[in-house]
Amino acid sequence: MTPEQRIKHLQTWLDSLEVVRANQGPARGTIAGALVVLEHLKSEFDLTIAAHLAPKGTQIKGASGRVVEGILAALGEKRPYLSEGGRTNRGLLKEIKNLLRVVGKMNLGTELKAERAKSLTTLQILLTSQVRAFHDRQRIKLNFDPAKSTDQLVGEILSAARESAKEGPVAQHIVGAKLQLRYPALKIENNHTSTADTQLGRAGDFLVGDTAFHITVAPMPSVFDKCRKNLAAGMRAYLIVPKRATEAARQMAGDDLLPRISVVSLESFVSQNIDEIGEFRAKTRNGDFARLVAAYNERVDAVESDKSLLIEVPRNLRLGA
Predict the structure, then answer these.
(1) pTM of the model
(2) H/E stretch holding 236
């Protein structure tokens, strides 16, 4: 049987799975359990369900969030997927039995162990595409509590983004949205976050007046080199980092650079302007924060193919609500 035919068999199994409304796709536990079972088959090719069950007979043997994370990482997918692996969702064992039945039709038992392992990895790659599709459908969740400070709300957006390995792109776009709201008469650049400054000939992520803004969630020596180049060109430089990284960034800047650049926390940089735009009034702050999120989503939607970077706007923050 050709690799293409095997992939087609596995796709048929995937198409048979129930769609979970919250995932808009198959249950994560099923995909995770299937990844683990295929990994088991690489070392011992036993297609009976009993060979893949934990002692109590209700869970997949050896399945855990850590194991699934390791399998996915080896296939290039490093975003968090499921904390408990393929252990808990209802109907899992029936679905895994069907998977083993489908694998049994692929004639993998006739291959040498090394070749069979490669074939099984090919099947795992298809399952990994389901994981990527899941992430692509999941927007960043924001629980808007109007009693919280603007600084705290911005911090919670960054925290939610960090949990799904999206903090870097989110940080850049939320600063861009803030600058757009603060300076509506200016054209604030909007670029795909994977595009390097050098490719575009940019002085930084954003340029306003004679000031270059650099946004990073993990300060590295290269960003300080960019700041030095800004200064040498007669410009000013702002380094904007999450609050947790401000002290480390200041230390890395050193005594020679720190007095000449501004190192500020992203949370305060964004929140202060939002509060100022609303003239520090609680009644207007919520609407201005809603406009910040709307501007962020517009900017992301315009340049990013990964729509999971969009923020899911809660009902109590929707403009006009």
Answers:
(1) 0.65
(2) strand 236-241
